[in-house]
Amino acid sequence: MLKTFVCQICLHIAFNEAPVDCPVCGSAIENFENDVDAITTPVDPANLSEFEKKHIPAIRLERACTSESGGACTDVFIKVGEIEHVIETEHFIEFIDIYINRQYFSRIVFTPKKIYPSVHLHVNADKGMFSVIAHCNIHGSWRSKIKLD
């Protein structure tokens, strides 16, 4: 079973082992706790409830790179929730963390009442497992993943 370690400072999730320093906030390894329930998973992935559809990130890939750099990349579109999640001051998606092959890649922070939890990225990777963890300030962390190759 995959171990999940959660930074008690910024809620970053690390897989398999806690990092010496948190890649998001720089906190020391002592601030990580092993938490088997860190990521909420749907009861029935083939039959998502309305609640689950509001929290699970949707990921769409496009092989053509639209970056102005003209480099080789994969365009990734991420939207939290098949059904739009609220962005109220009291209830919102705080951030999404992005991973490739369970290695932390980036965090995108959302401001309540200002930014919908959706993003378009140009990723310099064309193979491996691409994962997104969305964190709702009330309902915790939810993950989606998709193969890049």
Structure report:
This protein has 2 domains: 1-37, Rubrerythrin, domain 2 (Single Sheet), CATH 2.20.28; 42-147, Immunoglobulin-like. It is 3% helix and 42% strand. The protein has one helix spanning 50-53; strands spanning 4-7, 13-15, 32-34, 39-40, 57-62, 74-80, 93-100, 103-109, 118-123, 129-136, 140-147. The strands form 3 sheets. A 5-stranded mixed sheet has the order 4-11-10-7-8, with no helix packed on it. A hairpin with a 2-residue loop joins strand 7 (93-100) and strand 8 (103-109). The relative contact order is 0.20.
Feature tags:
single chain, 149 residues, mainly beta, Rubrerythrin, domain 2, Immunoglobulin-like, 2 domains, five-stranded mixed sheet, three-stranded antiparallel sheet, 11 strands, globular
What is the H-and-E element order?
EEEEHEEEEEEE
Calculate the terminal CA-CA distance, rounded to whole Å: 24 Å
Strand-residue fraction?
35-45%
CATH architecture grouping of the largest domain:
Sandwich
* Spans where pLDDT lies below 50 across 5 or more residues: none
- Biggest sheet statistics: 5 strands, mixed
Structural class by secondary-structure content: mainly beta
- Give the fraction of residues assigned to helices: under 10%
C-alpha Rg (nearest Å): 15 Å
The total strand number stands at: 11
Sheet with the most strands: spatial strand order: 4-11-10-7-8
Total domains, how many?
2
Mass-distribution shape: globular
